[in-house]
Amino acid sequence: MAKKVKRVSRQKDAVDMTSRAASIIAVVDDDAHVLESMGELLEAVGHTVHAYPSPQFLLASKVLQSLDCLITDIGLPEIDGFELCRRTRIERPDLPVIFITARDHVADQQRADAQGHYGLFRKPFYAAALLAAVDRALLSRKQR
């Protein structure tokens, strides 16, 4: 059974939504529970979320040009998260990418570092850490 992302409470522990501009974030994961949890977390702080159960659905969609950030699982069938990152950067070389994974392989860290990323998180991870990485990614994109 897949582990769920820890949720941020919507009260005092939640990040102040007024400090973030609404952004469009794509989340790609083949685990429906992760997609749901990530969607709820990101929407709770004001982002618009497009959730995809596979890279093929994202690549076939027309949202790639409007995305502000991509969060993708590494261990996906057929097209893994690294290949998805490579393909999206053909059209969007400036698109910030955050990787998530249930694996604990040194090779994954090395590949992620080689491709450039704003975070590599092993499931389960803390919601606040993911939100901080999203904020860094969005801030760096706005500064370009």
From TrEMBL:
Please report a single Pfam family linked to this protein.
Answer: Response_reg
PROSITE patterns, per database record: RESPONSE_REGULATORY (PS50110)
Output the superkingdom of the source species. Bacteria
Protein name (database record): FixJ family two-component response regulator
Which key words are in the record? Phosphoprotein
Keyword Phosphoprotein in annotation: yes
Where's the Response regulatory domain? 24-138
Report the residues modified as 4-aspartylphosphate.
73
The organism's taxonomy opens as: Bacteria, Pseudomonadati, Pseudomonadota, Alphaproteobacteria, Hyphomicrobiales
Query: Which PANTHER family does the protein's record reference?
Result: CHEMOTAXIS TWO-COMPONENT RESPONSE REGULATOR (PTHR44591:SF25), STRESS RESPONSE REGULATOR PROTEIN 1 (PTHR44591)
Query: In Gene Ontology terms, what is a biological process of this protein?
Result: phosphorelay signal transduction system
